[in-house]
Amino acid sequence: MQSLTILKIGGQVLDHAALLNQVLDAWSNTPGHKILVHGGGKLATQLAEKLGIPQTMIEGRRITDDATLDVAVMVYAGLVNQQLVAGLQRRGLNAWGCSGASGNLILSKKRAPKNGVDYGWVGDVIAIHTQSISWMLTAGICPVFSAITHDGQGHLLNTNADTIAQSLATALASSFPVKLVYTFEKAGVLLNVEDEASVVRRLTPALYDEMKLKGQVHSGMLPKLDNAFAALQSGVQTVVLGKADVLIELLDGQSGTEISL
Amino acid sequence: MQSLTILKIGGQVLDHAALLNQVLDAWSNTPGHKILVHGGGKLATQLAEKLGIPQTMIEGRRITDDATLDVAVMVYAGLVNQQLVAGLQRRGLNAWGCSGASGNLILSKKRAPKNGVDYGWVGDVIAIHTQSISWMLTAGICPVFSAITHDGQGHLLNTNADTIAQSLATALASSFPVKLVYTFEKAGVLLNVEDEASVVRRLTPALYDEMKLKGQVHSGMLPKLDNAFAALQSGVQTVVLGKADVLIELLDGQSGTEISL
């Protein structure tokens, strides 16, 4: 069975045209089944600013009121998603723009207010409907997911793109051998956060425990890595973390951090 | 074989929440295969205004420069499309948002400047790839098409929603018995444009010729009706024109104008 690669890209790719082109080139030439998941980048913030919609961030998370949700849907599910699809089509990859609402592919639940903070129209994934996704993959189609989902009650929900990638990987792990690749601002998991050369090339549960004991895991990395190990425990074969600049090497296991059990 | 109904809705539905809800109720209860095609309504114009993007109209057609294309993609392929999908999902219909770029479903060609007028990023449909659309239909999915297509060269294109509906109907006519329904501001084809009660209930080629000879066809209706007859000649079974307010009656043949050969 052909393996499935799920790649998540965020603002550090989407906001830089030259890098984005390089990533789309590499991605369109990647063999096997594949799914692209994208965040939004700076565009949503810029559009909200132009429209005079005040943006409230609490602990690094955007509060999604009615107007901010509309902006997110327009930018993520609209402009960014369709431009990625058109760019991949030009490269001969049969990309297909998807949101979680389309085909009820990703069902979410509106996040309940917590500790007095109401995040608004933010959704947490509760179900992935894999049948249509598997159909696309076996038909040679590359689904391109924005981070917009729905609650089945008529509401669209702003969802974390990392979580979408992980949920897709976990849900599809029983049908395909899955490699989950997160591009981010670092070259990988670093032994010393100040030193980009200190990349841990292969992270195992034992090494991770050791690093945590020694206080070598940056607090911002903890949830990312905990999620990675949770995905592996759910049947995902490999999780890779690294820089989009070297996507080909990342996909080949020549760069970044490869996490496996 | 189950018949296929293709419904096109425009601003007169999208801009009125109560009517839109009524249409989505009726549509979700419509039996058989179905495809929804939508325009954009006032939202795109309003967003362009808020963003200070000047809109140029020539002979009722919007000139689509770079900034206007982005607005069209955000509003049509993003917000309007996804809200329709979520609204139909809530009603139990497995709707799926599509653009022409997704899956290369609708390939267009950028319109060449004509008589000194450059329409910008406007596309004319050149190919419909029916295989994936047929898959969705037989899987019980209702594709919801925005009027955004692509040229296969990486450019998104703003396309006329009436044309998209007609092109889909024509392309799918060899696979399904197709009924093509256009909602618009009139109760149907009128013998007297001032009198909403003068609806022609059934329009045949002979009657159409007679009406044209007598000067009874409003100039704005000529291209719509010429296109309807072209669709019928290409194998579409029926074209229906009428008001969205009475969608159930329209779909049942109890209202509006039914056009057939």
Can you walk through the features of this model?
Two copies of one chain form a homodimer. With 261 residues, the first copy, chain A, is of the alpha/beta class. Chain A folds into two domains: 183 residues, 3-Layer(aba) Sandwich (Carbamate kinase); 77 residues, no CATH class. The first copy, chain A, contains nine helices and 14 strands. In chain A, the strands form four sheets. In chain A, strands 5-8-2-1-11-13-14-12 form an eight-stranded mixed sheet, sandwiched between helices. In chain A, strands 3-4 form a two-stranded antiparallel sheet. A two-stranded antiparallel sheet of chain A has the order 6-7. In chain A, β9 and β10 form a beta hairpin. The mean pLDDT of chain A is 95.
SSE sequence of chain A, one letter per element: EHHEHEEHEEEHEEEHEEHHEHE
| Distance, first to last CA of chain A | 21 Å
Structural class of chain A: alpha/beta
Order of adjacent strands in the largest pleated sheet of chain A = 5-8-2-1-11-13-14-12
What is the CATH topology descriptor of the largest domain in chain A? Carbamate kinase
- Cα-based radius of gyration of chain A, to the nearest Å: 18 Å
Q: State the helical fraction of chain A.
A: 25-40%
Count of folded domains of chain A: 2
| E-strand count of chain A | 14
Tell me which oligomeric state these chains represent.
homodimer
The name of the CATH architecture of the largest domain in chain A is 3-Layer(aba) Sandwich
Strand content of chain A: 15-25%
The top-level CATH class of the largest domain in chain A is Alpha Beta
Largest interface: A-B, 39 and 39 residues
Spans where pLDDT lies below 50 across 5 or more residues of chain A:
none
Task: Characterize the biggest β-sheet of chain A.
Answer: 8 strands, mixed
Q: So how many helices of chain A?
A: 9
The pLDDT mean of chain A sits at 95
